[in-house]
Amino acid sequence: MAEVIRAEGLFKKFGQNVAVDGVSFSVEEGEVFGYLGPNGAGKTTTIRMLVGLTRPTSGEAYVNGVSILKDPVKAKETVGVVPESSNLYGELTAWENLIYMAQLYGLPKKEWEQRADELLKDFGLSERRDSRFQGFSRGMKRRLTIAAARVHRPRLLFLDEPTTGLDVMSARGLRQVIRKVKEKGVTVFLTTHLIQEAEDLCDWVAIIVKGKIRVIDTPENLRIQAQEVEALEIKPQPFSEMLPKEMESLPGVEKATLIEDKIHLYGQSIHQVIPQVINYLSEKKIQILSIKTLTPTLEDAFVKLTGMEAEVMRVDKPQKMGGVG
Amino acid sequence: MKKEIKRVYYIARKDLKAYYLKPPLISWGLMLPIVFILAFYFKNPLGIEEVSPGLVGLTLLFSSTSMAAIVITFEKRTEALERLLLAPLSVRTILLGKTLGSAFFGLLMGFISMILVVFFFGLKISYPISLALSLILSSVAFALIGILISVGVKEVFEAMTMANFFRFPMVFLCGVFFPITAMPSVLQVIGFCLPLTYSVDAMQQSLLAHGGLIHRGLDLLILAGFCLILFLLAQKVFSRRIQEEY
Q1: What ipTM was reported for this prediction?
Q2: What is the least distance, in Å, from the CA of B147 to any CA of chain A?
């Protein structure tokens, strides 16, 4: 299969801060490549370098065979980009926004209207054709932003945190859209801080922390790597914040974390600890609402490979202030 | 080349369509110069003729810089500017588009104020070509000043404050209300470094058929020089800013 992205030691510094610290990887045609990491890991900066928006401080990348250093404008012509914020023009209607994108991407004039109508239909926005973008819901804004990135029919699509800030239904709908795009043979490079999303959508996952790629593998292989440690999930009642810390001292428990209102215990053969756990909790007069052993998830692999708590991935970016006017 | 010209035009057209009715543009672009004109007229109806060309220049200055500074700052704020940066456009194409939109808006406002002074105060257009060229070149130079301002600020109100920081001194230093030669020599030096001086000088000659610090042809040449230098500077500063911010 053809290689559509090749990054060679991409490095970017802002003043003294290193945002991306020498990342190298390649993405082949038709794949969904996930770039998974917490906020501030350097995901957006990597995309901005790959699509020719900003120049790397050092390193090189080829997108569809075009060097991003030598010809960033040409590289931009071959890709579609959906930035993290849905940043089309609020003052223009859905249709006008698509026409404007068709103009900027150099589509022949006779195709503008047909392509705009086609995309509105594909993304279920035909009825809102003449509504201004600023009046759209977040989910609709997101869909139109993806539609806008597809105006020139790119074979490579970059999506930066596509479902961030969306409600559950819109996020689910959007994942469906991404799957459809993949079915058309389009290569997708997506960044996310949602482990589940990477697991659901991606053929390959690169885990990036503090600007460095820790590992690149398929979600299956990453899960297998986490297999050596078993996990036990307990839902206690009443619940106390101190409980995980206390349970870490039980023999056979290597690590205890808190996931929503459940406690996850990790250990080499954690199932053997079940009797002690039951005893410990009943002595403390704590009810067990549920208990089960877990097959490793990508989240477990993430925790193991990065040494970070999965919680760091749930911290949302500080919201920017709303626009003016 | 043809492709670039088309895209410059699309950017300019979109800006005009999306933003020309924004309140700060209307107030700073047209209201302020009209207030100036009326204030002068009521104070001294007979002397209005002498200051009219300068007032047209002021309208151009305020509307062109406002449009450029507001549009870019606003798009930076709503992150829509990233949309342009992601599109297959060079910095030159983006800036040419933004300049064209703003200059056109300034030109339109300048043209309206010129029609007003010509009709109401009975001015005669002695050199139409010089007048047209001075209007066009001035609006481009002022739009570029607006763009340079927008690069350095984050908020729309900052852009307006910053714009006024440059614009208000020009009102007094560039021969709009009194001849530049009547000022102390230090201020004259500053006046001669500002583009509005040459816009006003060319417009005074074109509309009043007399006066002039230098030949109007030279005024136009200097204005063209300002446009070129300001554009190259904007291109450099804007490119550097992208690398720092994205």
Answers
A1: 0.88
A2: 18
